[in-house]
Write a structure and sequence with these properties.
With 291 residues, the protein is of the alpha/beta class. It contains ten helices and eight strands. Helices cover 40% and strands 15% of the residues. Strands 1-2-3-4-5-6-7-8 form an eight-stranded parallel β-sheet. 49% of the residues are buried.
Length: 291
């Protein structure tokens, strides 16, 4: 496969969109638990895998979990993780893919291919899967929930972590996980719940992965959720090229910017940076296996 971005999505309006400067390196290396190396907006902003890894390793982010969200992205994620030791993969159909595929009777075949990819050693997670009530209209939510259930079953059967997308669907995500029975390892990607949801997830032994949103001015409830999370349940991610942390919102995100988010998290948790980094690194291995 030719290495390059497989998808380009519209983003913020053009402006001062050059790449932000590299922040001060972290004192202890951490992993980016959720990244989309195959997506760029605009296309000329794409970093090759080698460029992305070099830039992130230089600031203390030497490992990346590459997430594929459709069949093309899942294939690319699995191949990239096989070829690059610092990268492991998650494969799934994004919740918003499920209704589109179901509408043309392709959902079952697509899920079967995700199932085959999930067997690969370089694939450490099934995800991101879950529910999205922000973009999916009510008529598409049945297919979305069926896809979520299928991914949960895959994660359990293959012994892989389940990476959960939850947008405006907190109660239903928790309901489906309870009805299906969660796998041993569950990661709530880009956690967006409140304190009570954080406590519920922690009681289940799940990891909460925080993105650049925790730095946003309007994210007081999210910082409240982070504040009640014990150190052994916390992960960090970029969701790059999305969710660029303050003060660089609107500019391209990448794993090398993750130290900004980690420092903000240390402030919220009132812990020293080295302790938090060490916890995140250990949690990454516990969630996805060492690599």
């Amino acid at each position: 496969m030719t290495e390059g971005p497989t998808r380009v999505r519209s983003g913020p309006a053009p402006g001062a969109r050059g790449r932000p400067p590299a922040p001060e390196p972290l004192p202890v290396p951490v992993a980016d638990s959720h990244c989309h190396l195959d997506i760029a907006d605009p296309p000329e902003d794409w970093l090759s895998v080698e460029e992305a890894l070099t830039a992130s390793a230089a600031v203390g982010v030497p490992r990346i979990v590459q997430i594929g969200c459709d069949l093309t992205g899942a294939r690319w994620a699995a191949e990239t993780a096989t070829r690059h030791g610092p990268v492991v993969a998650g494969v799934a159909l994004h919740p918003n893919e499920a209704p589109r595929l179901a509408a043309v009777d392709d959902l079952d075949d697509a899920l079967a291919e995700i199932d085959r990819l999930a067997e690969l050693p370089a694939v450490r997670a099934v995800g991101e899967t879950g529910l999205d009530h922000f973009r999916t209209r009510p008529e598409g939510r049945g297919a979305q929930e069926a896809s979520f259930r299928a991914h949960i079953e895959m994660a359990k059967r293959h012994g892989k972590a389940l990476v959960v997308h939850d947008r405006d669907a907190h109660a239903d995500v928790l309901r489906v996980l309870a009805e299906e029975g969660p796998p041993d390892r569950v990661v709530l990607h880009c956690f967006s719940g409140d304190r009570e949801m954080a406590r519920q997830c922690v009681r289940q032994g799940w990891w909460l992965s925080f993105a650049g949103t925790v730095t946003f001015k309007n994210a007081t409830p999210l910082r409240g959720a982070l504040a009640v999370a014990p150190l052994d349940r916390v992960l960090v991610e970029t969701d790059a090229p999305y969710l660029t942390p303050t003060p660089y919102r609107g500019r391209p995100n990448a794993s090398y910017l993750m130290p900004i988010t980690v420092r903000a998290m240390a402030d919220v948790l009132a812990t020293d940076l080295e302790t938090l980094c060490a916890a995140i690194d250990a949690n990454s291995d516990a969630a996805f296996g060492s690599w």
